[in-house]
Amino acid sequence: MTGLLEDIKALKQLRDAQGDKWDNINAEHAARLRRQNRFQTGLDIARYTAAIMRNDMAAYDADSARYTQSLGCWHGFIGQQKMISIKKHFGDTQGRYLYLSGWMVAALRSEFGPLPDQSMHEKTSVADLIEELYTFLRQADAWELNHLFRDLDDAQQAGDDARAESLIRQIDAHQTHVVPIIADIDAGFGNAEATYLLAKKFIEAGACCIQLENQVSDEKQCGHQDGKVTVPHADFIAKINAVRYAFIELGVDDGVIVARTDSLGAGLTQKIAVTDEPGDLGDQYNSFLDGDEIESAAEIANGDVVIKQNGKLVKPKRLASGLYQFKPGTGEDRVVLDCITSLQNGADLLWIETEKPHVGQIAGMVNRIREVCPDAKLVYNNSPSFNWTLNFRQQVFDAWQEEGKDVSAYDRADLMSERYDDTPLGQLADQWTANFQRDAAREAGVFHHLITLPTYHTAALSTDNLARGYFGEDGMLAYVAGVQREEIRQGIATVKHQDMAGSNIGDDHKEFFHGDAALKAGGKDNTMNQFG
Question: Sorted alphabetically, which PANTHER family does this protein's record hold (predicted)?
Answer without folding.
Answer: BIFUNCTIONAL GLYOXYLATE CYCLE PROTEIN, ISOCITRATE LYASE/MALATE SYNTHASE
